Amino acid sequence: MRQDEHPDYHPVVFRDRAAGYAFLTRSTAHSEQTIDWDDGRSYPVVDVEISSESHPFYTGKARAVDTEGRVARFERRYGGGAQPGGPA
Length: 88
Known about the structure:
- This protein is of the alpha+beta class.
- The protein has helices spanning 56-59, 67-78, and strands at 10-16, 21-27, 34-36, 42-48.
- The chain contains two helices and four strands; from the N terminus they run E-E-E-E-H-H.
């Protein structure tokens, strides 16, 4: 395997500021900022907007869609379904 063809794969900390959560993994991402980790070493840190700690799908805090209210609003606006004797 040639060494020149592959990007630098190194330990990086990804930090979700909204959730106050950070995790150490390996990545090709680069950052000028560093953070001191629990093991006493300093690693580059990449700030992310959403992680598994703050994403609604993973946290179970997804919004419930009010489908009943939407249907009622549609029927009020456009009428309540097919009318007898009318076009289908």
